[in-house]
Amino acid sequence: MKLFSICSLSYYFLFMISLGLLIFGVYFTLNDLVYFVELELITLNSSSFVMTLLFDWMSLLFMSFVLFISSLVIYYSTDYMSGESNLNRFIILVLMFVLSMMFLIISPNLVSILLGWDGLGLVSYCLVIYYQNYKSYNAGMLTVMSNRIGDVAILLSIAWMLNHGGWNYIYYYDFFNSSFEMHVIMMLIILAAMTSSAQIPFSSWLPAAMAAPTPVSALVHSSTLVTAGVYLMIRFNPILVSSGFSIFLLIIGCLTMFMAGLGANYEYDLKKIIALSTLSQLGLMMSILSMGFYKLAFFHLLTHALFKALLFMCAGSYIHVLKDFQDIRYMGLLVNYMPFTSICFNVSSLCLCGMPFLSGFYSKDLILEMVGMSWVNILIFFLYFFSTGLTAMYSFRLFYYSMTSNYNYLSSYSFHDDSFYMNSGMLLLMVAAVFGGSMLGWLVFPYPYVVILPIYLKLMTMIVVMVGLYFGYYVFSSLNMNSNNISLYLISSFLGSMWFMPFLSTSFLSFFPLKLGYYSSSIMDYGWLEMMGGQGLYNLFIYFLNYMQNMFDSNFKIYLLSFVMWMFVLFSLYFI
After folding, report:
1. Are 98 and 116 in contact (CB under 8 A)?
2. End-to-end alpha-carbon separation of the chain, Å?
3. What confidence category does residue 477 fall into, taking pLDDT thresholds of 50, 70 and 90?
4. Helices marked H in 175-264 — which ranges?
5. How far apart, in whole angstroms, are the C-alpha atoms of residue 165 and residue 172?
6. What predicted TM-score, i.e. pTM, was given to this entire model?
């Protein structure tokens, strides 16, 4: 009962704070307020160390959403982690994770951003390896090593910011335009954002991080770790657009969105499919903010957080009752056994596809309409709309395997969704996912965008979604692929393995250093260095000692004679 009370206390505490921050966020939005709060921590003579906090509509709304989702995740964990003997430790880790994200959101300062960034990286490693086995260890190492690249980039950018006399980057927007330091700092910040948000070529850690418990996945993939890079680029957006690096980030984001959509259509692990859909949406956010529409990216960031947390919660509910099976081929007709979870699951999938009047529609449709109205080439245009169709394809594939195909699990096994805590968390999130998009749209865009498009471009989003649904139905219900076709197998293995990126991030990178270490140790440490170094000197000294010992043992007369000679030399030197 003590552990359950900790969960309940954390849930109510975070939920009430999120409501308060939401009220403040609405007030700040309507009145266009920005507050800088400076806390003087240490003063020594004329030097003072000041911690600056930034409160504006963006940081307050984002904090409200993070706390709302994390409170429901903790409430959900009461049932999902009920068999865990260390539930107390799990809740404390989740709270530390949320606190690090809060620290990052309200920091206009690169030093305090680094503290929150490092906190996210360290606690995410602890949560990924929570189930202690080899798979979790490998996933945790891949996650933490990928994110360390971003830490090093932020550290280097902190060193370069010394040229401007301070680390509050918001003060220096106007001074960055014509300086060489700005280009270096912007490159490092882009690198850090790419590692945290798992853009190409750092994408492989995101599906690997699915080794964490499902409530952690719901928190990480909706509003915390993966969105930190997007939020950082939103804050640096004026410098990004003026520096000229936005074209590079646009191409990277579109390729990430395309790659993740293709990979999700070949995956059978339920959590990895949802993780790849997160990767696709992160690419969408990165690409649209690199075009200068940072408010649109933030809007999609918030709506995506709602339905992606719900999607992971429903997946966790399925996994929980199926005794930790995650393969979608084991599922089928789950709607007959778990109707409420299936309703929430399909509503969140439709939000992901961008179905009208759900939360994903308001942000995704507006993004695609702005792309259609912008000056972009045919490649970017194709990647945007084709990736949207791929989203509908893997969403329908998920629906087909879990809801319509035959029941493939144990024939004598019965299950249901009667968990009060899990259902309550999913219900609240479903209400937020259905109504949150329209309310946020009215709040963030009080004056709507004027989008003037021909009718075929205006309907392009809905056409692409419908075509994607049709192809998903055609491919996964009636098309039987020939598994003996070697070219088809190679194409599917390439597309289904995220373009071989997990191999490139792990074995490819570590093979040559480990091989070099093996050869250097065998040739030097166990070879010449050993022969000429420690063992060689040891053998040489042993040889001389044995020789001298044998000489003294067998020739006592020589020993006495040498003693007399040494005494004669000493006396002669003394009298001289």
Report:
1. no
2. 95
3. low
4. 180-196, 205-208, 214-220, 225-235, 237-243, 246-264
5. 10
6. 0.85
